[in-house]
Design brief:
8-stranded antiparallel barrel; alpha+beta; 10 strands; disordered N terminus
């Protein structure tokens, strides 16, 4: 065997053994636990979009915040608060020139299934949701069985 072939053989052998390093991958359970920890806390809804509804009149986009309509400042808010015990609450309000004109509250349960799927239950009605989550943003999309809409909620911490 000549010197070049010997060196090639040694080099290939070294490359083979050096590539057998254990990968530091995140296991699915770690992703679930990480996402549970990220989700816990209060999220402020930015927008709720209903589309593809059975009745097209139900298709709508609701953006939260304040705007002036005919000289009246109208503010809407919605928050979702996720607790470590798998429960959550939501609350929403609307004001006109600082006076509360409507509120809505409710409670339910949540469970993260994997890196992109979760279950949200509200008053016994559960939906499978697709979600994306970072430290500061949360988006969930599911189907509203009552109206046949695909509902997407976008929120920030």
């Amino acid at each position: 065997m000549n010197f070049k072939n010997l060196m090639l053989f040694i080099l290939l052998g070294l490359m083979t053994f050096s590539s057998c390093k254990k990968n530091d991958t995140v296991t699915p359970n770690n992703v679930i636990e990480e996402n549970k920890a990220k989700l816990i806390g209060t999220w402020n809804a930015i927008e709720i979009v209903d589309m593809g509804c059975t009745d097209s009149a139900d298709n709508e986009t609701q953006t939260f915040g304040c705007e002036t309509e005919d000289g009246v400042e109208v503010c809407t808010t919605a928050t979702l608060t996720f607790a470590a015990d798998g429960t959550y609450t939501y609350s929403g309000s609307a004001t006109e020139n600082g006076t509360v004109v409507g509120t809505e509250e409710g409670a339910g349960t949540w469970e993260i299934i994997d890196a992109t799927q979760m279950i949200l239950c509200l008053e016994g009605d559960c939906t499978n949701e697709t979600y994306t989550l970072t430290d500061s943003s949360f988006t969930t999309t599911g189907t509203d069985t009552e109206f046949g809409c695909t509902t997407t909620i976008t929120a920030t911490k």
